[in-house]
Design goal:
6 strands; 15 helices; hpI Integrase, Chain A; DNA polymerase, domain 1; alpha+beta; four-stranded antiparallel β-sheet; two-stranded antiparallel ribbon
């Protein structure tokens, strides 16, 4: 039995055989490549040598070739391909990776995803902003919820950075289409949330949360820590005697010390005690992260609890607003509250402080 040759195979520089009588010339320049197929090796060699000869004699010809190659590559490079590359190179290294990847996956379901990256125009961006407002959830059985102005602005910021990366780092496009959109047509900043726990919602949430999800809720209200900060907390950074917790890498990229209230310290001590023996009852010293619960498990418990108590408009980040407002109500001044929350400016802290009017009235006398 005659052994069949394997294709493709290199036959000469810049030429490879891709079939019994098919020869492909592939010429690369500045990281891009241009290819063309011929029916004979002789024709392929003539084409290859002609290009090399013209480029050697005329620098302008070389620039034209580079432009042709880049145009061909860009024509095939879609927004979806760029988004996948952006996820791998940029999103996965960010603190909010899961949220950003979720937004990218939603953008991949829009009409924008199939467009060649170099061909995206300002009107395409305006259209996708409208599309996002009415796009149903990907999962079946999930109730449609209109997108807020704040969330739409996050998509805008994501797309803006994506196109900047494609322009400045990848050199695939020459301009950012979002910069061509008038300010009046851009998404507006949403109003800051002022939702706090109402009535006995705190107790009801505790009643419907269990395990680590319950502890995270208690500590979020007591410490003003974000969900990611709590889930990333490690035992080695907590002083169970005097109370401070050290965040080595907070949202703003800097470390900070979080004072712990009596209730927060009590909860950490309880968790530490439960972790001090293994499943066989043998003593051990807890190491690593405080919590082992996954983000999906926490979300499931949170969604279930707030649905059970009819508080579906209470988001996890609202615990931070609740905690900072409670700090002011306990008598902490702005500087002291900033130490707890980690805010650098008074203006940033002010938007979280939503004090109960009745408490203010009592202080006024």
């Amino acid at each position: 039995m005659t052994k069949q040759p394997k294709y493709p195979k290199a036959v000469q520089k810049n030429i490879r055989q891709v079939g019994p009588s098919s020869f492909e010339v592939r010429i690369s320049k500045n990281g891009f490549s241009l290819d063309k197929t011929f029916d004979s090796l002789a024709d392929a060699k003539i084409y290859r040598d002609g290009i090399h000869h013209r480029c050697a004699l005329d620098p302008v010809e070389s620039d034209i070739l580079s432009a042709r190659i880049k145009k061909k590559v860009n024509r095939d490079f879609t927004v979806a391909m760029g988004m996948d590359r952006y996820k791998e190179e940029k999103s996965e290294a960010k603190k909010g990776a899961s949220s950003e990847i979720h937004r990218i996956n939603k953008l991949l379901r829009t009409s924008l995803a199939t467009l060649p990256l170099f061909a995206v125009k300002a009107e395409d961006i305006i259209e996708v902003m409208q599309e996002l407002k009415t796009m149903p959830p990907a999962a079946k059985g999930v109730k449609f919820k209109p997108i807020t102005d704040s969330t739409l602005k996050r998509y805008w910021n994501l797309l803006h950075h994506f196109f900047e990366v494609a322009r400045l780092e990848w050199k695939i496009i020459d301009s950012n289409p979002l910069e061509l959109i008038p300010k009046g047509q851009r998404p507006k900043d949403g109003k800051p949330r002022t939702r706090r726990l109402i009535g006995n919602e705190y107790e009801l949430m505790l009643a419907h949360l269990s395990g680590e999800a319950r502890s995270i809720f208690i500590l979020a209200v007591e410490t003003s820590m974000r969900r990611s900060e709590l889930m990333g907390a490690e035992w080695r950074n907590i002083n169970l005697n005097t109370g401070p917790l050290v965040l080595e890498d907070s949202k703003n990229g800097e470390s900070r010390i979080v004072p712990l209230s009596t209730l927060a310290l009590k909860e950490f001590r309880r968790l530490h005690k439960s972790e001090s023996v293994d499943k066989y009852g043998q003593p051990r010293i807890p190491t690593g992260k405080v919590f082992s619960i996954t983000l999906g498990q926490l979300r499931y418990q949170w969604e279930r609890a707030r649905r059970m108590i009819n508080a579906t408009d209470f988001h996890f980040h609202d615990t931070r607003h609740e905690s900072i407002s409670r700090a002011f109500e306990k008598g902490l001044n702005v500087i002291e509250a900033a130490v707890v929350s980690g805010h650098k400016t008074v203006s940033m802290l002010k938007r979280y402080a939503n004090l109960h009017h009745e408490d203010i009235r009592r202080k006024l006398g």
